[in-house]
Write a structure and sequence with these properties.
Blueprint lengths: L1 E6 L2 H17 L4 E6 L3 H9 L10 H11 L19 E4 L16 E3 L5 H13 L10 H8 L3 E2 L9 H4 L23 H10 L5 E5 L2 H4 L13
Parallel strand pairs: 1-2, 4-5, 4-6
Antiparallel strand pairs: 3-6
């Protein structure tokens, strides 16, 4: 028996491969077989087609996978016993910035991805519920594209408002994968949205409360140390 674990990047694939070897050396069952997909959505499709068995997802993607494909969460990672598997959605700006929740209109925004819990559903839902964002005819994408002065919303490239919602996206180092809802877009996911802010592309980033410390204070060995 084996578990086919679906990954969405080269880094995830390598981590999965290392875990598979460690399981084998320790005699842990079931064994792990790593299957590399192109995105979370692609992996969900592979699981639905019974070509993979498991994937690591955030809360929003778990909800979508359950609602649209009947998938279920089976385990959650806990790094801090006081926090558990829950987290807070926060809006982050640079130190000294004059941007507040009341002055977001016209600002450049960085999001983890379209329909993601922290980077889209929570902030957009809050803006609508608080009356700050007016949605006409249930066209949320148009409302958001008009509200912000340009954004990076990975996954919005195939919408009618990609010019605005993908304006800040950069793709990978070769310019490929611009606005993809995958690691090909450098501003995708929590670290990507924070990078969008840190590199000056955006004025505000919508991330989870632990994102800043996970990417600063010596905890991250990648791009922040080079800036």
């Amino acid at each position: 028996m084996e578990v086919r674990w679906c990954t969405i990047s080269d880094a995830e694939q390598q981590k999965c491969s290392d875990m598979s070897k460690a399981f084998q050396q320790a005699g842990i069952q079931p064994s792990v077989l790593c299957v590399q997909g192109t995105s979370a959505d692609h992996c969900i499709q592979l699981i639905t087609a019974q070509e993979a068995d498991a994937i690591t997802l955030d809360g929003g993607a778990i909800y979508q996978a359950g609602k649209e494909h009947g998938l279920k969460p089976v385990v959650g990672e806990v790094y801090d016993q006081e926090i558990g598997t829950s987290y807070y959605a926060v809006a982050v700006v640079k130190r000294g910035s004059q941007v507040t929740i009341n002055t977001l209109k016209g600002m450049k925004s960085c999001h983890t991805g379209i329909n993601r819990t922290v980077g889209w559903n929570v902030p957009v839902g809050y803006l609508v519920e608080s009356g700050r964002l007016s949605v006409m005819g249930c066209d949320v994408l148009r409302a958001v594209s008009d509200y912000f002065g340009g954004s990076c919303v990975p996954g919005a490239g195939e919408t009618s408002y990609s010019e605005s919602l993908c304006r800040l996206c950069r793709g990978d180092t070769t310019g490929e994968g611009v606005c993809d809802k995958s690691p090909l877009e450098r501003y995708y996911d929590y670290s990507g949205a924070f990078r969008c802010l840190a590199e000056g592309a955006g004025d505000v980033a919508f991330v989870k409360h632990s994102t800043v410390l996970e990417n600063t204070d010596g905890e991250w060995k990648g791009w922040p140390q080079r800036r």
